[in-house]
Amino acid sequence: MIFQYGEKEIAYLKAKDDTLSEIIDAIGMIERKVDDDLFSAVIHHIAGQQISTRAQATIWKRICDMLGEVTADTIVQAGKDALQSCGITYRKAEYMLDFAQKVQCSAFDIEKVKHMDDAAAIKALSSLKGIGVWTAEMILLFSLQRPDILSYDDLAIQRGLRMVYHHRKITRPLFEKYRRRYSPYGSVASLYLWAVAGGAIPGMKDYAIKKKETKRSTK
């Protein structure tokens, strides 16, 4: 399954921002995979934290192959040692097991999260061990397909904003300006900013302040 968006979201963003409109036309439609199983998505995001995309794919395949189906029951049955043997740290294995146990005994109502608004869902998910605000935001976008997720804590989003709008630095107030402009379709804007940050348009550069410039400016 891929993140669902179409002409309505594209037309809105293009009407709101001429610069982003040019980016959208240059890149075209973007297909990003999503996992509509919320439990599996949380486990997947814990496994993938602070490692490369390639390493994440390898580890996730091992976990899926070992468990067959990624559920609270299969995680608890596997236990920490088996989970760690897939290539994750012991701490990540602990986080996965803690989450699975909470779901299993209904201490964490995962079905309820699906019906919360964005702020409440982020608060609930980030209360879990190993899940911070950024990870919770990514789960909302790539599992629940929430339409208005633009993460200030995402370094690639900040890079994309610098590249598209030629900013040297993305401050919180500047970020909020763009967040309001893109709303209620911040998630689609995120897809294009990630694409730009990843080099989708040749010749675009990052205007970030270089370290040497920062040192000179403080003298």
Mean pLDDT, to the nearest integer, reads 94
Could you name the ranges where pLDDT drops below 50 across 5 or more consecutive residues? 214-219
The largest sheet, given as strand count, sense and whether it forms a barrel, is:
none
Radius of gyration: 19 Å
Strand content: under 5%
What portion of residues is helical? 55-70%
What's the helix count? 13
Which outline best applies?
globular
Termini separation comes to: 53 Å
Provide a concise account of the structure shown.
The chain has 219 residues and is mostly helical. It has helices spanning 7-16, 18-27, 38-48, 53-67, 72-84, 90-104, 110-113, 118-125, 133-142, 155-165, 172-182, 186-197, 211-217.
Can you offer a commentary on this structure?
It is a single chain. With 219 residues, the protein is mostly helical. It contains 13 helices and no strands. Helix 1 crosses helix 2 (18-27), helix 2 (18-27) packs across helix 12 (186-197) and helix 5 (72-84) packs antiparallel against helix 6 (90-104). The protein is globular, with a radius of gyration of 19 Å. It starts with 6 loop residues before the first helix and ends with a helix.
Structural key phrases:
219 residues, mainly alpha, 63% helix, disordered C terminus
